[in-house]
Design brief:
By secondary structure, this protein is of the alpha+beta class. Helices cover 20% and strands 29% of the residues. It has a five-stranded antiparallel sheet with strand order 1-2-5-3-4, with helices on one face. A hairpin with a 5-residue loop joins strand 1 (36-41) and strand 2. The longest helix is centred in the last third of the chain and has 15 residues, at 122-136.
């Protein structure tokens, strides 16, 4: 799936005003911008380009995706690296992280980023998820 506008990857657009920013401390209604892209490779050799977002980003309802929970850190050369924590898939990214069954593991590994590969077809999502798990063996998938 190719990526274009933020709307195509399921990010809810939000008008950020001073009032919205003040409310954001109490509510999760501020949508954060995409941080960049990262390519993860499956054991099959297939490359998947994911969009990276800060942890806590709100996603469009009924947006199906494969996702990586990561710890994103800046390298000395100015680029970024991702420590892979967990790989999952969902038919609705907007609610997936509400009370996630692996939340304690995410917290132990200091998650701060979610990388998203949009895919509406469940069978395809499951295949991609397994392809990536088989290559990376993230600690929270064990």
């Amino acid at each position: 799936m190719g990526f274009g506008t933020l709307a195509e990857v399921g990010i809810q657009r939000a008008r950020i005003t001073n009032a919205t920013l003040r409310r954001s401390a109490r509510r999760k209604d501020v949508v954060m911008a995409k941080l960049g892209t990262v390519t993860f490779t499956g054991v099959s050799g297939t490359d998947y380009e994911f969009n990276a977002y800060p942890w806590g980003t709100s996603f469009k309802k009924d947006f199906g995706a494969v996702y990586f929970v990561t710890r994103r850190t800046q390298k000395s050369d100015g680029g970024y690296s991702h420590i892979r924590i967990y790989i999952g898939q969902t038919e609705d990214l907007s609610t997936r992280f509400d009370d996630h069954h692996k939340q304690a593991c995410f917290d132990r590994h200091n998650k701060n980023c979610v990388c998203v590969y949009g895919e509406q077809d469940e069978e395809t999502r499951l295949e991609i998820e397994q392809d990536l798990i088989d290559n990376y063996h993230p600690p929270c998938n064990e």
